[in-house]
Amino acid sequence: MSPRGRQAAPDEKTVGTAAGPSLEKAAAVADDLPEAASPEELAAQWEAEKPEPAGLTTNVVLALLVIGFGGAGVVGSLALGTGSLGEPGPGTWPLVVSSAIALLGLVLLAQARATSDTERFTSDSWVVLPAVLTLVPFAYLIEVVGFEIPSAVLAFVWLKVLGREGWRTSVVGALLMTVSFYLIFVTALGVSLPHLF
Amino acid sequence: MDIAPVIDGFGVVLQPENLLYCLIGVVVGMLVGVLPGLGPAATIAILLPLTYAVEPVTAIIMLAGIFYGAQYGGTITSVLLRLPGEASSVVTVFDGYALARQGKAGTALGIAAIGSFVGGTVSIIALTLVAPFIASFALDFGPPEYTMLALLGILLVAAVGNGSRTKAFVAAAIGLLLATVGRDGFTGAERFTFESLSMADGLDFVPIAMGIFGLAEILHSLENRGKLGKPPAKVSNPWPSRKDLKQSSGAIGRGSVIGFVLGILPGGGAVLSSLAAYGLEKKRSKTPERFGKGAIEGVAAPESANNAAATSSFIPLLTLGIPANATIAVIFGALLIQGITPGPGLVEDHPELFWGVVNSMYIGNILLLMMSIPLVGLFVKILTIRASIMAPITVLITLIGVYTVNNNSFDIVLVIVFGVLGYLMKKAGFEPGPLVLAFVLGSLLESNARRSLILFDGDVAGFATRPISGTLLAVLVVVLVLPLLGFVLRRSLAGRGGPAAPGPGGGATGETPSDSPSDSPSDSPSDTPSDTDAPEGRTKESSR
Amino acid sequence: MTVLVGYVDTAPGNAAYEAAVAEAARRGEPLVVLNSPQGGALVDKALVGDERRAELASVAAAAGVAFELRQPTHHDDLAGAIAAVADEVDASVVVIGIRRRSPVGKLFLGSDAQRVLLDLDRPILAVKPRS
Lengths: 197, 544, 131
Description:
heterotrimer, B: mainly alpha, two-stranded antiparallel sheet, 1% strand, C: alpha/beta, 5-stranded parallel β-sheet, 44% helix
């Protein structure tokens, strides 16, 4: 199928390694041809760009987690006391809901092989862990030293480490953000926020 | 119909503060629609702390502006970058981008703006006529009716959403369970509080919404790094010609109607309407081959539809007190925070709120039309801001914002916890929307269910005996049974495992993704479900 | 053996491109154009669009030079990206564009070009735009 006078679709991560000579041909044809793909091709392209689906194990574990959660709910509800249908107790409704969760978990287990909408945890996914870990101290520090320092530090870490930005961008960015937030929240809106300066 | 409150509503809207917040809402909404990742639900959730500082009317005017503004914003990236900013703008990509390639980006954007304006306005007019009628009808509702209605609402949203139906139901059920945490209203017993004082009053809606929608999205977007962007697009010719307008007038009209109707249904909404409107235009066109290559109707129809739907999806909220989709559920939560419980009584008890919000939509749509084209350049510039810079900004807004609500750092912890939960749910394929919707409706559903049971003396069949609740129960059963029927039917027709289910939701399984070599060339995108499920088996387009 | 040029659509970049084409013609080697934006944004000003690419390609074709465009993203280390591609295509010379900087400018704003000049262990052709 003709490449329609363009190089590899810009949204693909890896570009150009095997496509050397053909790219030259493609580029030489000044692309008058519209790049627009038909809806099916576009949809297929988006589908291909979607994250990889997870494997059977993940789906099974997921289903088991759901069943477990539902089961825990059932136990908790029974402990609360269920009463009768005519006189519902505090545990009646949670019991109904928890049982539904457990049942649905069983359905998920049955569907585990066919499920394809679970995203795989890739090596890229690891970044979320440090991201979350930076947020926790923020919650505790904000009341101790005000919001400026935790905000600046958080912004810096997110820029430099998670965002892989340069030193200059990270420092300047962190400072700018903190100052802007100060101006917006404290000065302009007058919100009651613990602040040091 | 009593005209006086409607006129008073305009008086409310024209107050400077409300006008300002309407403007802010529409601009923020457009911006959010342009930026990939954050959607109107997440943005509204993140801005919830702001609603504490203003009047209820003002708050809802702004939040509504965000919602329908986002429907237009998504169009900009669809047309200029072939990338839908919002799910409801996916269909616009086909013809909108083709028009841009032909140098007619301005035409596409202009028609989209006009279509959005007309769709929104038509929808508001219809809302004005229909809503009070529905509200008065619903005044007779008792606990059984509310139970059924709430249940149906949750089920429909879970059933019609993207992705697996089962998982959506699980999410909804978890939301219901979360709603039970705290002190039981009926008996005073403490449920699932784990001896924590902070949990005794129940889980707060704001941190949950901010976490599951806002923080989860931020965390999820951290994963996608290194994707190549696109060069800046040029918008040359400014406005559609008279011929274009004439050609698309029918599409706009039909799109508006479709959008209005589908938007009212819980679970329907902007995405479904845009698909349906596009499909309809293509089917009834005498030259359907133009679609996908720059047919102006292919932009006009979905854009009118999605704005009409965004507006009409307010109807169940304002008349029955039942949110029709996840975004409206967050707005529902915002109202609850302000101490206002939406329901049939809203029109009577708070007419200035009801009509203030409704009338603000007229103004908002006008603002949208006026500002959409001039601001395109600015939005494209904003798109050049790297994600690694946007992320800390959004995170800080979220964390600091939630703190300002109660000056309690426990709220920040809650946001983090639910952010992680929301992220895991996203990875696992669970929609966060049904969870939030169910959480918001949970206590309403439970108290009405218990009251009904007391009413019926424990006889569950009582639901079927009352006319309205009986009808709703029947609909509920149909919604539950239909996919099973479809599943059985498909199996028995000895399918060649076919593509993802062509109907809404596509939750039926039994088709392993690997064994479908057949291409089903769905020629009308209304066959492809709301998100981007593709006909399987197509060869991936590789660079050749 | 190829000629690698780091390209952005600016005066120094275009000057570098011109020089690169001439150099490739002189050496009889194919030309590889590296247009690498810093990743993470949906729209990137540094990225070369189809029109511009066609123009570049035709200039190369007029000089009888084989043309290849690569557009990988980089994260804060453009010099490293250039080095990696240079290795991949076995560049016999790397062409870059240089902006005129005041001494103070050099201090505060760092310089990708400076990093390339210092770190890259291949012959480098640094081109300044004609003023």
